[in-house]
């Protein structure tokens, strides 16, 4: 359920027990302007939204939604709809997300998904702006670190190689993952499921790193890394059934579907 912004401001203001005059003074506007917001006559200038959120100690998302859980559900639906056509129709995918941003302005998750419908260097500057907005404004570490990764990739694609390493340095080293801990510390089916998911991720990363080594190797021995990647996938497919679907996905994504 999307809430009227004026209603939300009035709700938060009364919750803090302050007058329209106090809020107006903080924002540098007239109390009549605040009154018009709360009655729905006008809306605050978009540049005031962060200041309003800061004053009340809430996120910009909370300014636009009464029901946070409902908002999160709707955001998930929007992102799922966009994801469903991301490969087949990226223009439509982007349109779905931009329509979502009209309902949930500045939403971190939608902005993060929007980056996946865009490509550098053609739209690199816009991607850099979105990434920096997420890095500076999100409270979700997963979104922040993904934005840093995409920002580094964007700099790389734009030929700004000197900015890649400083950007990546802001991402913390990975010492353990949730799935790894669940596999080691849980029991039974839960541990097995976590171990299998973690193994799939590790398999994909191993194959990807072997292909990186192939790209960075010059001359003799270059092909050995791709052969090893193929052998790893074939071993996994042969010894750990059912693993065929996962192997096919990794082979298609990283090796272009090729088999030895």
Automatic annotation (TrEMBL):
PROSITE patterns named among the record's database cross-references: HTH_CROC1 (PS50943)
Keyword Transmembrane helix: no
CDD domains xref list: HTH_XRE (cd00093)
Keywords: DNA-binding
Domain HTH cro/C1-type: 9-63
Keyword Plastid: no
GO molecular function, one term: DNA binding
PANTHER family the record matches: HTH-TYPE TRANSCRIPTIONAL REGULATOR XRE, TRACRIPTIONAL REGULATORY PROTEIN-RELATED-RELATED
Protein name (Swiss-Prot/TrEMBL): Helix-turn-helix transcriptional regulator
Species of provenance: Candidatus Enterenecus faecium
